[in-house]
Amino acid sequence: MYKEGPGDPSRIEDEYFYKKDRELIEKMKAAEKQKKDILERTQHYHKCSKCGHGMEERVREEISLLCCQHCESVHISLKTLEDLTHHNRLKLIVNELRDHLGNLKESA
User: Fold this and answer.
1) Lower CB count within 10 Å: N or C terminus of the chain?
2) Do 61 and 82 belong to one domain?
């Protein structure tokens, strides 16, 4: 009668293919996770964090702002905010945004 031992070729081959299958499964899981992360990020792109409505990009004096037309939230990057406060232009931009949003409410 034939007995399989630890050095049996069929067992070594099975272990090899098991390891290869595990590597493929891990690669597939990583690719699926990456796709899921990208989809999750794109679903929130240009969406207001407060109300979920779309944001409109406005550029004023080379400053990019995202403005929500629904709840009037304004999103601004930290670097842009630092630049504004450094040059004392923040108050001017805020006043301009208030005027613009006030005009939108009046026309609605």
Assistant:
1) N
2) yes
